[in-house]
UniProtKB/TrEMBL annotation, chain A:
Coiled-coil positions: none
Keyword ATP-binding (UniProt): yes
Organism: Spongiactinospora gelatinilytica
Gene Ontology molecular function terms on file: ATP binding; ATP hydrolysis activity
Entry-linked SUPFAM superfamilies: P-loop containing nucleoside triphosphate hydrolases
Protein name, as recorded: ABC transporter ATP-binding protein
Amino acid sequence: MNIEIRDVSWLQVLHEITLSVRSGEVAGLVGPNGSGKTSLLRCVYRSTRPDGGRITVGGMDVWQAPAREVARTVAVLAQDTPADLNNSVEQIVGLGRIPYLGALGRLSAAERTLIADTIERLELGPLRRRPYATLSGGERQRVQLARALVQEPKVLILDEPTNHLDLRHQVDVLRLARSIGVTVLVTLHDLQLAAAACDRLAVLSEGRVVAEGPAVEVVTHDLLRRVYHVEAHVTPGPDDLPRIFLPV
Amino acid sequence: MSRVSEPSSPSAPPRERTAAPARSGRLGFAGLILLLGAVLLVSLVVAVGLGPVSIPAGDVARMLGHRLAPWLVSEAPAGPQSVIVLDIRFPRVLLGAVVGAGLAAVGAVLQGVLRNPLADPYIIGASSGASLGAVLVILAGVSPFGPLSLPLSAFAGAMAAFGFVLGISRRGGQLAPTRLILAGVAVAALTEAVTSYIVLTTPDKEVRTALFWTLGGLSGTQWRDVGVPAVIVLSATAWFVTRATLLNALVLGDEGATGLGVEVDRLRLRLITASALVIGTVVAVSGGIGFVALMVPHAVRLAARADNRHLVPLSALTGALLLVWVDVGARMLNQPDEIPIGVITAVLGSPFFLFLLIRADR
């Protein structure tokens, strides 16, 4: 399902942003701190209402459609999810069905199976009774991803999913997100990681899209100087993806 | 501050079958509800018999049966005992159950909606606001809305105080729990100080009535006091249960819950408004009964590790049960005088509160 962002503005943070993400594509949103990446994501998943513009997901205007309807289409891994929850892994994953539940919150047999299967699929089986608070950072991200999958979304939004994760778990989370086969919009700080994980990158700077396209076209010496104010050496690697050498 | 909500119970037997949010203990949720409901019914009958004049539970049951279903129980003891049971004790015991249920259900909801295990209507200022509203109306001696003046003013006080606390605690559209607790403690201290000052500077005649609000109690309850609180508490609790699934989403934080299609601000505002309505009504008929709202949901969590769908109704039943028996203590322990209920719940509640704090530090 495609995402169409048209002329979206919000306060002094986002300025008439227009961006398209094609169905099934993994699109990366990169840019310096405070460039508006998280704010733009929030506009898409119906958390921050933009002052102007329009956002559609598969033709559905997310700010016109009911919140539940949007949550059945768009699943989110937000930044700063509370970590100190005593709920079990199984309970947290089960929360993904909330957009589908009636007033009494009863899960159908099919939904129970979906939850159990997703837990197995993300290799969380042995952890399913464990309190969420006792998990490692990588395990928590996997649980949140399982919860998002249980939502059966067509679009997955990931806000800094690799924060606080070591190298292996960064790769794990992004690989999992790619393997699901839905449209993904992800913010990442690590440009090299973003280049490897995303089909296309959009660079945000001071609330505007300043570059857009395949990583090799976007991540350049000139862009790093213009947007990040860093003089870095950029060369194509053996996989044709950009390699960044920082002048530290 | 670390959280203490929903403690895990490593000793609980593993259940293989359910993939859904965990069931409550061995009995299951339905079993617990039935058990607590049955114990509550028996307690109501037994508690009506207890007091300065002791009346056997069998007689109480027959009197109640005769009143409720005369075609079933054709004969019952009459005379002064019947007046004590039917007109004095029974409304009081019933109101105790209603007040306990309301306080505990609201406690469970507030702890969830504010994502703070130490939230209760006192700590967030709602109860002290209600007391101030009630005291002002009592001492002014006015009743612009007839018999509804008292609950309405208590309700207005609860809403005003809590609305103020809520307004202060929100930052950039997000609720900051630490600020909420700090603001709530400050507002509660202020309203309590104003209440105390008003009570102390009032002529003797009204002082006792006014003091009632700050200490809490059920003596003098009449049948007409029971109806409105019962309807409000029952309907609010039922509505809370239908919101419990959304409340569960809030453990993921505001952003996480929003991502699950929960309109967090609206949900929070509605639940808090309903809570303030319940608190206002309950305080208006029972005064300031503390700690029930804090204690009961935590006790239920310790015993049953329930999600909010289970936590709210289980807390309501447990709160009803607790208050019925605390009220028995209030009229039995210091005969012929009564101990204010708020004193007993505080004596029970303070150590429990400290226990929670110590536990949170581990």
